[in-house]
Structure formats: structure tokens, C-alpha cells
Design goal:
434 Repressor (Amino-terminal Domain), five-stranded antiparallel beta sheet, DNA binding, Cro/C1-type_HTH, 5 strands, 13 helices, alpha+beta, 46% helix, Beta-Lactamase
Length: 277
């Protein structure tokens, strides 16, 4: 038995029809019509007006005869049909126009993720966005790295700290590799979020004030690490190796959950001394 590939044109047509027919005209404040509606939902001309396109264009899309809609038109259709975030992403995929990043970058921790960070104790954990802003952390991460509460919010950025904060600069034994990997990730995030002025500003600031950052940024390395190993130098317990994992929540793809674990028995012993003090 063979499985047919998805005909995205026909699925786009069916999806648009199905979502249009689910809408309640009363929710849009549309004037009542003298003629009774023969089909549920909004009429094609009503969706066309809401999306700012012609009725003929909607007809052709719903019949699988139209051209592939542009990202701008897909955005307009998603708004007109009042699609939920997952439905909106599906529509962009069907139109082969998935945006690099259409929503505003995350600047605060999603409440369920903030609770998860706390619940992960005794494992050190923190939540970051794509530009390395630190959005949430637990007590164990504070003991391992730094009390982020002592920093002003604009300076709670892992890249900025690694480059400029004296305590964090000394924390990583192989600091140059950590910085190099971080910059390679940051460049990938920069390309994926060209509209993020805060990220552009951060890169400009670091390029201007830090020769190491400027040199590594100019090499144009691209790398996104989902897991790895780091060697830390802690002032209280000495050196300890950690494994890290970076997890991306499906519903919050711009928030990244970073979790540390002791990498070996010697590090586990140092780990236990640190967290039992």
C-alpha cells in the first residue's frame, strides 16, 4: 500500500472552505441579509472584503484554481478567518509561505514555562528567548551561575554576560568555545528574525565594544546546539562538567528551556557539595 503525498493546493482550498463555514456572521457584526443563508458561515464575498481581496480570488482559491497566495495575502486570510495560532501556521505551510517570524519576539516567560522552570528543581534550569535574554530561572541555576535578580533586566542576556560580566567570564573553563558557539547561534537567530530591532541593537553594541565578538561575528559561523557539554569553574566547589539540553516548546517556539545535569561522578560530587551547603 502506498501513501499519497499531500496535494497542498486542494488541501488549502478545503481548509479555507471549512474555516469559512465555521464562522458565525453575528460575530463580525455583519448586517442581516434579506435572503436566507443556504450555507453555514460567512459568504465568500464577506471573507474577501475582510481580507481585502476580490471575491473572484477567494472563489479560485477555494476551488483549487488560484495562484499560490503571497505571505501578505495569507496573513490577511488568517486574520479574516480568525485562525488560532496553530491553524495560522498550518495555512502558511499549505501556501508554502511560512514566515520566518511574524509574531513579536518573546520578552517575558510564558507562565506555564516559568512554572516548569521552578518545578525542574533540583536540576538547574532557565528559560531564554532566541536572542539569549534570560526570562526565568530557578534557585539551582542561581547557585550554579549568578543571581540574575541582581542585574537590571536589560543586562539579563546570556551572551552579554559571557562577554562582559567578570564573574561569568571566569565561570567557563573553555570560554572561547562557549562564546564561539553562542555567536554562531545568535547569527542564525538574527537571520530568522530580521525584524527584531532589539537583537540588531544587541549585535551592534557587542560588535562595537567587544573585539572578540566582532572577530567571531565576522567569521559567519552558523550553529544551533540542542545539547552538549560544558566545563565550569565554580568558586565554591571547583571545576565540574555539565551536560546541557535545550528544549523548544511547540506552542512557544521562541522560548528555549535550558537544563543542566552533572556530566560525570566527580562533577556529581561537586554538584552535591554545592547544593547541600
Amino acid at each position: 500500500m502506498t501513501t499519497r503525498t499531500v496535494d497542498t493546493t486542494q488541501e488549502l482550498a478545503a481548509f479555507l472552505r471549512a474555516r469559512r463555514e465555521l464562522l458565525d456572521p453575528h460575530d463580525f457584526g455583519l448586517p442581516p441579509r434579506r435572503q436566507a443563508r443556504r450555507t453555514p458561515g460567512l459568504r465568500r464575498e464577506e471573507v474577501a472584503e475582510l481580507a481585502g481581496v476580490s471575491t473572484d480570488y477567494i472563489v479560485r482559491l477555494e476551488q483549487g484554481r488560484g495562484p499560490r497566495p503571497s505571505a501578505h495575502v495569507v496573513e490577511a486570510l488568517a486574520g479574516a478567518l480568525r485562525l488560532a495560532p496553530d491553524e495560522r501556521a498550518y495555512l502558511f505551510d499549505l501556501a508554502q509561505q511560512r514566515p520566518t517570524h511574524a509574531d513579536r519576539p518573546a520578552t517575558t516567560a510564558a507562565p506555564p514555562l516559568a512554572r516548569l522552570v521552578a518545578d525542574l528543581s533540583p536540576l538547574p534550569a532557565m528559560l531564554l528567548n532566541h536572542r539569549y535574554d534570560i526570562l526565568a530561572w530557578n534557585d539551582e541555576m542561581t547557585r550554579l551561575l549568578l543571581d540574575f535578580d541582581t542585574l537590571p533586566p536589560p543586562r539579563r542576556n546570556a551572551m552579554w554576560l559571557c562577554l562582559t560580566h567578570p564573574e561569568i567570564r571566569e565561570r567557563y573553563v573553555d570560554r572561547e568555545r562557549v562564546v564561539r558557539d553562542g555567536i554562531a547561534h545568535l547569527r542564525a537567530a538574527w537571520a530568522a528574525h530580521p525584524e527584531d530591532r532589539a537583537l540588531t541593537g544587541l549585535i551592534a553594541e557587542l560588535t562595537a565594544r567587544d573585539e572578540e565578538f566582532a572577530r567571531l561575528w565576522s567569521e559567519r559561523d552558523i550553529k544551533v546546539n540542542g545539547r552538549g557539554r560544558k566545563l565550569l569553574r565554580h568558586p565554591e566547589v571547583g571545576e565540574l562538567a555539565v551536560h546541557f539540553d535545550v528544549l523548544t516548546p511547540l506552542q512557544d517556539p521562541d522560548q528555549r528551556l535550558l537544563i543542566y545535569r552533572a556530566a560525570d561522578e566527580e562533577s556529581r560530587a561537586a554538584w552535591d557539595r554545592l547544593y547541600t551547603r
